[in-house]
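FAQ: What does the model actually see?

It sees only this:
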Amino acid sequence: MLNNLFTKLEGYYDEMVSIRRYLHQHPELSFQEYKTAGFIQDYYEKLNIEVKGEVGGNGVVAKIYGKKPGKTVALRADFDALPIQDEKDVPYKSLVPGVMHACGHDGHTATLLILAKTLNELRDELEGNYVFIHQHAEEYAPGGAASMIEAGCLEGVDVIFGTHLWASEQTGTIQFRTGPMMAAADRFEIEIQGKGGHGAQPHKTRDAIVTASQLVVNLQQIVSRKVSPVNAAVVTVASFIAENAFNVIADKAKLTGTVRTFNEEVRQFIEEEMQRIIHGTCYASDSSYQFDYFRGYPPVVNHEKETGILIRCAQFVPEVKNIVETEPEMGGEDFAYYLEKVPGTFFFTGAKPIREEDGYPHHHPKFDIDEKAMLIAAKTLGSVALNVQSE
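And it is asked to produce this:
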């Protein structure tokens, strides 16, 4: 049946590309993906596949029931876009100003839709049941996974798999990892309140820019001097806002950024240490502050057995040339929530554009993928979904 699945997927490759390009032209931001969700639901309804919309928000869940008994396997794809202006010169460039699919979620959706269509045609031969989770709002915490789980998308599911098209790796590469693969992704905001004044009279002020600048430097000592080198962690100040005229000393400054960790104890320690350092720095400058720390997604922790199944099944895919264990990534993914509930694994499918000059990182205005990677992702997910029944 695997060869039959692969052949059918190859036959639908042009449709897969067409779906991806349509979605690329019509992106929607996290929690605003109403038309995209409608497109996905309509696609399943036209195939007479059981489907439910508005699952935990804009989520869509479809189900295929095999004729033979077996496990219930869930496969997940996300479908939200980013607030980035598309700067590519391609026919399928985003038609929505300031919004684009800069992370491959359009490709994830096209991959899963065509895989579902193909498995539906093989349902008389299928063992078990298959759940297709189309998730909204992966890009922005609290994300869509948690609300979809609360709405029941994992009810009856025995195992789950997902992939991310990875534009930094050559097409034909599958990257896996057992255990922690992607980091917990937290966000923080710090507002410094000083006392403004004339730029020529700094002694009469409490300069919020100076205090915030010292704070940026002080926060860097958490990872470099407080966290053990064997525990990966990141504290990044990504935004520094203190707008004033050239001759005015700022009374306010705002810092925003992110914290990435794999270990819950390290995560907790960094939050507490940030509080201590912020308090001390502001106390020294006689300034007040507001510190808000927002817990994001937990780390993605892959299960050993399911990761082993992935490794074996990826070898069945002719286009897969390299199966590589990857280093942990500091990026975050709310696929983590699914893995907290049921066994599974999340992996990367290489999707680097063929032309070197087209290779841009994720979240870049000129981001693009090698669309052949979608076919590889579909074959790999399909192989895993079928073979997990015999495990």
